[in-house]
Write a structure and sequence with these properties.
The protein is built from 11 helices and 19 strands. It is an alpha/beta fold. Strand 5 and strand 6 form a beta hairpin. It is globular and about 65 Å long.
Length: 423
């Protein structure tokens, strides 16, 4: 295969105009810093080659290497070489893959970490970071299977689970409205029973416990921006209540174990997050807009488009979760981006970003996608923006990624998944 190199590597600049070469930090006695290029090699390049007849596979694999090397700096050695054959609609899988290099930690620094919900959007990125840092991780994500530091477990957190560990990141729960509303009783059960079982495990093993709560605990807020001491404005019997109230009772349970049994707990209230590996069919505004724009379909905005949201990129969230876990902060902490957009403005930004990527890749759409408006869903909050003062003061954390740069990575991720036939 010829090793084509692009004329210009794509650089990512943070909000201050500085190039982002690493994510993570070194503080609280915990080193979580890893090169961004190695992380990108795990998610940005598609799993198979671009669509091509069998005889063109090698040629287009080289082209895809060159395209994605603009972001991943050529680190495609750490990828599966499975091949998709669109002419016969078949995939040739291979078990031959090389894992990215991970840090070699001495036993005194290497932690045994349990991540529930590790196959999900946030969980998979957290697992990638923890694995690259050299820790031993037990979870449900699949692309690390076979690595000596990794153990995969298929388990429902509603049932008790026994293991020895030092830290527990409890992320397991459906988080998008179509998914958590599909089986509302199961969602409440997962929030309560899952948290009860994991807190019981933390109590027995004396592990530090972090629960991924949500900005939904604030409901449709009457205070703006939302700070951690605000109690919220939630409809307890609406269609979103199974998730909203499920997370609220999970927080109650967490602090019950903290006060009664001395469990070392952390509570992260996560605001809207986007990035590669988001399920394109989960009904969230970011994935909806990007997939619609890439397909040349009109962008669907619910309501008048004047409701606001703030969006943080996945790497900022992972930085925040790891900082919180290893800090001494036991109060709830908002983790989100304070940059606020109306949904209408965000739709325009997504359209511009998709058009920019298409121009750079030499793909010109036949027509410009339009923005259409439809009725607002029940109990959809009008305004949502975090007050992250506590995170800045206690964790020395604040978002580094601009919404535009995160969107460009996500557009390239979905574009590659569509080319390989995964979407």
């Amino acid at each position: 295969m010829s090793h084509l190199l692009p004329a210009e590597l794509i650089k990512t600049l943070d909000k201050n105009g500085q190039e982002i070469k690493t994510v993570g930090f070194q503080r609280f006695g915990f080193d979580s810093e890893v090169p961004i290029d190695i992380l990108r090699s795990l998610y940005l390049r598609s799993h198979y080659v671009l669509s091509a007849p069998v005889e063109q596979v090698e040629e287009l694999d080289a082209k895809e290497f060159a395209d994605h090397a603009r972001f991943t700096q050529g680190l495609n050695a750490y990828q599966s070489k499975s091949i998709y054959h669109p002419d016969t609609n078949t995939i040739s899988y291979t078990t031959l893959s090389r894992f990215p290099p991970v840090k070699l930690l001495p036993p005194s620094e290497r932690k045994r970490i349990l991540v529930t919900g590790g196959a999900g959007f946030v969980g998979s990125h957290l697992v990638d970071r923890l694995m690259l840092l050299g820790h031993e991780v037990t979870t449900t994500v699949s692309h690390w299977v076979g690595h000596p530091n990794f153990e995969m477990v298929r388990h429902d957190v509603v049932e008790p689970f026994m293991i020895e560990c030092d830290q527990i990141y409890h992320l397991a729960c459906p988080a998008s409205p179509p998914h958590y509303q599909f089986n509302a009783v199961k969602t409440v059960k997962t929030s309560f029973m899952g948290s009860l079982n994991m807190l019981g495990l933390a109590k027995r093993t004396k592990a530090r416990f972090l629960i991924s709560s949500t900005s939904e605990v604030y409901g449709d807020p009457e205070v703006h921006p939302q700070h951690e001491d605000y109690w919220g404005h939630v409809n307890p019997i609406g269609p979103r209540a199974c998730y909203d109230e499920g997370k609220r009772v999970a927080e109650t349970l967490t602090y019950g174990f903290h006060r009664q049994d001395g469990v070392d707990v952390r509570v992260a209230r996560i605001f809207n997050t986007y990035g590669p590996r988001m399920n394109p069919h989960d009904g969230r505004v970011v994935s909806n807009f990007i997939v619609q724009a890439l397909r040349g379909e009109d962008l669907t905005v619910y309501g008048d488009g004047k409701q606001t949201r703030s969006f943080q990129y996945i790497h900022d969230l992972i930085d925040g979760l790891i900082a919180l876990m290893n800090s001494n902060e036991t109060r709830p902490v908002n983790i989100g981006n304070g940059d606020e957009f109306t949904i209408g403005e965000f739709a325009e930004l997504v359209r511009e970003t998709v058009e920019k990527v298409q121009r750079e890749d030499g793909v010109l759409p036949t027509k410009r996608v339009q923005i259409v408006y439809k009725p607002m869903p029940t109990d959809d909050p009008q305004r949502r923006r975090p007050d992250t003062t506590r995170a800045k003061e206690s964790l020395d954390w604040q978002p580094r990624w601009t919404v535009r740069m995160g969107l460009e990575e996500m557009v390239r991720y979905y574009k590659a998944k569509m080319a390989e036939g995964s979407i």
